[in-house]
Structures are given as C-alpha cells and as structure tokens.
C-alpha cells in the first residue's frame, strides 16, 4: 500500500476553502515553477479558466486554479491541496465532462499548458504494413507521447501533415486525458482499438505527490485502471504514450441524411449493417436522429436521420455495405447520399468527421447496446415521435440520439483486459439535449424533463444495464455496474492501493 498520512478532518470543499488563508495561497504560489501560475478569483485570467465547457456547471467556482505546466508543479499543487484540506481536481481540454466532474470549489488543476507532443518512430520488426484497398497502413509505426493538455484537435495535424494516426474522438476540443481514461470511441476504433487500447504508458501523480510511470511492466494494476476506469479516480495523469499508425493513401467516406419520415427503415437497415459488419474492422458508422430550433414548425422541419463514417477499403466495397441505406428516401435524398460516398485523404476524413459543439449547456444519457438489445421498430417510432415533442432551445446543437457502432478490434479484447468492460457491444447509444446560456430557466427544466422521457420512451423502465463512463449521467443510480460491470471490484482494489484516503473523489468516483 502506498504510504499516506490521513487527510485533515473532512469538511465540505467550500468550508475548507474558507479556512485556507492568504499565507497558504502564497505558499502554493511559491512552490510552483515560473512556468505554472496560480489564479485566484480576483485575477483577470481566472473567469475563462474557471468556466467549464458545459456551462450547466458554470456556477461551481474554484477557490484557486493552477495552470500546470510541469509534472513537478502538479505534485506541488496536489501536496499543497492535501495539506490544507482542499480537493484538487484535474481538467484537461476545456472541461467536457457531461456531469461537471471536472469542476470544483477546491483547487482546479488546469492542464492546458501541458501541450508537448513527442514522436518516436519505431522502424523495423515490430511494425507491419498492410494494404486495405486504397490505403496502406503501417501498424504500430512508433509511439507518440503527449502532455495532459493535448486535445483531439492538437493531434489531428499529425495525421493531416504526416499521415500519423492515433484514434481519438469526434470533438477537436475534447482532452485526450479524459478521453483515454474513460475509453475513447471514434471513427477508427473498430480498426485500431479504442484510444485506451493504444496506450502504452502514462505518468501519474498520486495523492501523496509521488510520481509513477504506469505500463504493462510497471504498476500494471494502475495501468489497467487508467484504460477505462475514468478520470480523477487514481491520480493526475500528466502524460500519455500511444502507439500510432502510419497512413499512406485514401479512405472511403460517407455522410447520409434523410427526413424523419425514413427513420424506421434507416435505423433498421443501419443496425442490420452494424451487426453484419461487427467483425469487419474496416467499416465505421455513427447513425442517429436529431433536430434543433425554437418553434414547433422549425423543430419539425429540422428533424432528420443521419449517418456518417469512414471505411478502410475500396469504394466498391463501401457502396456494397451501404446499399440498403442508399436505397432509402426520396429521389433527391438518394442522389445526395450516393454522391457523398467518396475517397478522401485520411486528413480530409478527419476534418469531415469532426464536429464542434456550441459552448453552452447540455445533458446526455447513454446505453451500451448488444445484439440482444438493438432498437426495435417500435422503439425507433417512439423516439421519432418524442423528438417532435422536443421543447426547443436556442442551442443549435438541439437534441436527439446518436449511435456509435463498435465491434472489430474493440471486441477482440476480453472485458477484463482493461478497465473498459463494454467488449461485446454493437453500439454505444447517447441521447442528448442542449440549451443556450440565454434561454430562460423554464427551457432548461423542460429540456431535462423531455430528455428523461425521451430515454425512457425508448427503453421503458428497464434500460440496458451498461452505460459509457465517458458520457456520465449524474442521475444514474446503478452507475457502478453500468460503467464498469464486473471490473468495478478490481477498480476498488486499485483505488485502495493508490488513493486509499479517497483524495481524488466525485459523486460517481470509484469508492475505497
Ligand atoms: C462535445 C463532446 C463530444 C464528445 N465526443 C466524444 C467522442 O467522439 N468519443 C468519446 O469517446 N467521447 C466523447 N466525448 C466524451 C469525452 O470523452 C469525455 O467528456 C471526456 O471525459 C472529456 O475529457 P476532457 O479531458 O476533455 O474533459 P474533463 O472534463 O477535463 O475531464 C473529464 C474527467 O477526467 C478527469 N481528468 C481530466 N484530466 C485528467 C488528468 N490529466 N488526469 C486524471 N484525470 C483527469 C476530470 O477531473 C474529469 O473527471 C465527447 C464529449 C463532448 C462534450
């Protein structure tokens, strides 16, 4: 067991913050190197750093923020926070956590300055080159080590400019840290594994301020937990080393859209395709329904079904896979959808597959769908009907659901190989709603009510057991089983070993 002193007597973070005096804050500032900075609420740089990406949690104000530039400074900040009895909560990216778990009234550790990216090619025996239609992939071409502040968007230029690829998610501003710690799904994961499956090692600052390197050969239990056990449970990860692939050539890309009239045949065909291609690592799909707008007629007019993805293979094969979808819809929709199927460079695909979400307010509820829990026509009909009852909001992102097809490499790993347990899924489903900062309070209330009803209209009173830990839902009761299944007990054992006093803690954190 890692030796730790007992933390100061428990107090709420707000009470604890009130007990921290100016001398304590000066001590923290003095302990930091010149590259890191402490911000207090009166500093002009404090407000933008305090604000999370999801403004739903904008009212949670940190007592102080350390903009961390080095691992040593993270150690100093963690040691200081323990000593004064404040929680220390890391935030990478812009703070995308759906449940506000990267917000705190204690000490916020903003990792955005840790932006280093170091590439180590590994030519020779360990890499292997294979051709998939118009693309040549050198698997495991080398490693790339990134600082905790690196975002998906920071990695994309590696692909666009040098053909180097690490699987990431859709949103450029999501932090690689939170993404990999909770799993990481995207448009290449069937081929190359989840983001966490590409992790080789990670540097972790523990609750006692010690720094450990976790990998298969060192602190293997912590390394296991850092691949799906979710952020802020075991320590502050300050860097991550991933295996990368080297690309040469093109990929197949498609982007399809129909009016909501086609929802039942499209969703049925898309689910059949996902099942038929479950073991085909090359085919990637995200399918969903959505709408946006304020007035009822806008919401109806904007309601649509959509599918997007990429394929590591020939255009002919991609057309054959998509044929049932390409045959659906009006003549105009069919023509537009057929035209969207084309060959592009992996860099162009990465841009086309990226989506930025307006920085406003949103909520999500997810479900892991297996071949036994795919959506029936009745469930799809219920979802479409409820979508048209969406109360509306000023957020362009609107509302709906998205389903990310899994399988391939992801499902090759046993559920206990890493902490990411969902290894027999066909889809990860996410129901979302959003509203704008300027919407009046009743819009938020109506959206949250609608969101709950939307989910339960689809799944009834017995929704699928598992949910995705990177789409945390603060209202989920049995979250231990939903996020971690049979891996939860092992996560608790890792937690007891590396953070026995539960210093890193939040409402759905791994317990001791
Ligand atoms: C618009 C949007 C799009 C998304 N798209 C995808 C997608 O395509 N694929 C996918 O898999 N997920 C996606 N997600 C979910 C995303 O993976 C999670 O929200 C993820 O946790 C975000 O990581 P972050 O570092 O940006 O967020 P944060 O809010 O900073 O962190 C998330 C959690 O990890 C902790 N944490 C952050 N940094 C560290 C660190 N360095 N060490 C230890 N703990 C840390 C935080 O305290 C918090 O508990 C999306 C989310 C949003 C809002």
Which SSEs are present, and which pair or pack?
Elements: H1 13-19, H2 22-31, E1 37-39, H3 46-50, E2 64-67, H4 71-84, E3 88-91, E4 107-110, E5 117-121, E6 128-132, E7 135-147, H5 152-162, E8 164-165, H6 176-182, H7 189-192, E9 199-205, E10 211-215, H8 220-225, E11 236-249, E12 251-259, H9 263-276, E13 286-291, H10 296-302, E14 304-311, H11 315-326, H12 331-340, E15 342-344, H13 346-353, E16 361-369, H14 377-387, E17 399-405, H15 408-412, E18 427-435, H16 441-459, H17 479-484, H18 488-498
Parallel strand pairs: 2-4, 3-4
Antiparallel strand pairs: 1-2, 5-7, 6-7, 7-11, 8-11, 9-10, 9-11, 12-14, 12-15, 13-14, 13-17, 16-18, 17-18
Provide the descriptors you would attach to this structure in a database record.
512 residues, alpha+beta, Uridine Diphospho-n-acetylenolpyruvylglucosamine Reductase, domain 2, Vanillyl-alcohol Oxidase, Chain A, domain 3, 3 domains, 33% helix, globular, disordered N terminus, binds flavin-adenine dinucleotide, FAD-bd_PCMH, oxidoreductase activity
Can you describe this structure?
This protein has 512 residues and is an alpha+beta fold. It has 3 domains: 13-113, Uridine Diphospho-n-acetylenolpyruvylglucosamine Reductase, domain 2, CATH 3.30.43.10; 117-248 and 485-493, Uridine Diphospho-n-acetylenolpyruvylglucosamine Reductase, domain 3 (2-Layer Sandwich); 250-477, Vanillyl-alcohol Oxidase, Chain A, domain 3 (3-Layer(aba) Sandwich). The protein has 18 helices and 18 strands. It has helices at residues 13-19, 22-31, 46-50, 71-84, 152-162, 176-182, 189-192, 220-225, 263-276, 296-302, 315-326, 331-340, 346-353, 377-387, 408-412, 441-459, 479-484, 488-498, and strands at residues 37-39, 64-67, 88-91, 107-110, 117-121, 128-132, 135-147, 164-165, 199-205, 211-215, 236-249, 251-259, 286-291, 304-311, 342-344, 361-369, 399-405, 427-435. The strands form 3 sheets. Strands 5, 6, 7, 8, 9, 10 and 11 form a 7-stranded antiparallel beta sheet that branches. A 7-stranded antiparallel beta sheet has the order 15-12-14-13-17-18-16. It has a 4-stranded mixed beta sheet with strand order 1-2-4-3. α9 packs across α14 (377-387). The protein is globular, with a radius of gyration of 23 Å. Mean pLDDT is 95; it is low at 1-10. The structure holds flavin-adenine dinucleotide (FAD). Residues 89-93, 95-98, 101-102, 111, 148, 169-171, 174-175, 177-179, 181-186, 231-232, 236-237, 357, 470 line the site of flavin-adenine dinucleotide (FAD).
């Amino acid at each position: 067991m890692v030796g730790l002193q007992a933390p100061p007597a428990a107090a709420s973070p707000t009470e604890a913050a009130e007990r921290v005096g100016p001398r304590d804050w000066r001590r923290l500032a003095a302990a930091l190197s010149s590259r890191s900075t402490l911000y207090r609420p009166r500093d002009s740089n404090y407000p933008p750093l305090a604000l999370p990406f999801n403004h739903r949690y904008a009212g949670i104000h940190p007592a102080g923020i350390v903009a961390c530039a080095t691992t040593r400074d993270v150690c100093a900040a963690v040691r200081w926070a323990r000593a004064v009895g404040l929680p220390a909560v890391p935030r990478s990216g812009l703070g995308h956590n759906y449940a506000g778990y990267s917000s705190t009234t204690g000490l916020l550790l903003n990792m955005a300055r840790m932006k280093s990216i170091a590439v180590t090619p590994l030519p020779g025996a360990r890499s292997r080159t294979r051709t998939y239609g118009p693309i040549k992939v050198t698997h495991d071409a080398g490693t790339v080590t990134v600082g905790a502040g690196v975002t998906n968007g920071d990695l994309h230029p590696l692909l666009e400019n040098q053909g180097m690829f690490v699987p990431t998610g859709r949103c450029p501003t999501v932090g690689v840290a939170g993404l990999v710690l909770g799993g990481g799904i995207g448009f290449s994961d069937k081929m190359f594994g989840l983001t966490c499956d590409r992790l080789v090692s990670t540097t972790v600052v523990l609750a006692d301020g010690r720094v450990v390197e976790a990998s298969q050969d060192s602190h293997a239990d912590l390394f296991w937990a850092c691949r799906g056990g979710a952020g802020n449970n075991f320590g502050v990860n300050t860097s991550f080393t991933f295996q990368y692939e080297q690309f040469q050539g093109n990929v197949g890309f498609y982007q399809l859209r129909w009016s909501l009239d086609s929802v039942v045949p499209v969703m049925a065909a898309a689910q059949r395709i996902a099942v038929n291609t479950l073991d085909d690592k090359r085919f990637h799909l995200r399918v969903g329904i959505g709408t946006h707008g304020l007035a009822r007629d806008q919401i109806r007019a904007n309601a649509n079904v959509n599918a997007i993805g990429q394929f590591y293979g020939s255009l002919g094969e991609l057309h054959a896979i998509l044929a049932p979808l390409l045959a659906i819809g009006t003549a105009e929709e069919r023509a537009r959808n057929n035209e969207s199927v084309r060959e592009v460079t992996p860099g162009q695909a990465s841009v086309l597959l990226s989506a930025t979400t307006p920085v406003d307010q949103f909520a999500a509820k997810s479900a892991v769908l297996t071949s036994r829990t795919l959506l029936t026509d009745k469930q799809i009909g219920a979802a479409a009907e409820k979508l048209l009852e969406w109360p509306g909001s000023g957020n362009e992102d609107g509302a709906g659901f998205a389903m990310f097809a899994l399988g391939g490499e992801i499902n090759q790993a046993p559920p206990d190989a890493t902490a990411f347990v969902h290894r027999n899924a066909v889809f990860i489903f996410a129901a979302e709603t959003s509203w704008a900062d300027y919407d009046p309070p009743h819009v938020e209330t109506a959206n949250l009510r609608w969101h709950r009803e939307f989910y339960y209209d689809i799944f009834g009173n017995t929704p699928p057991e598992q949910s995705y830990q990177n789409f945390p839902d603060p209202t989920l009761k049995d979250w231990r089983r939903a996020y971690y299944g049979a891996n939860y007990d092992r996560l608790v054992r890792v937690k007891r070993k590396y953070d026995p006093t539960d210093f890193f803690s939040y409402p759905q954190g791994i317990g001791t």
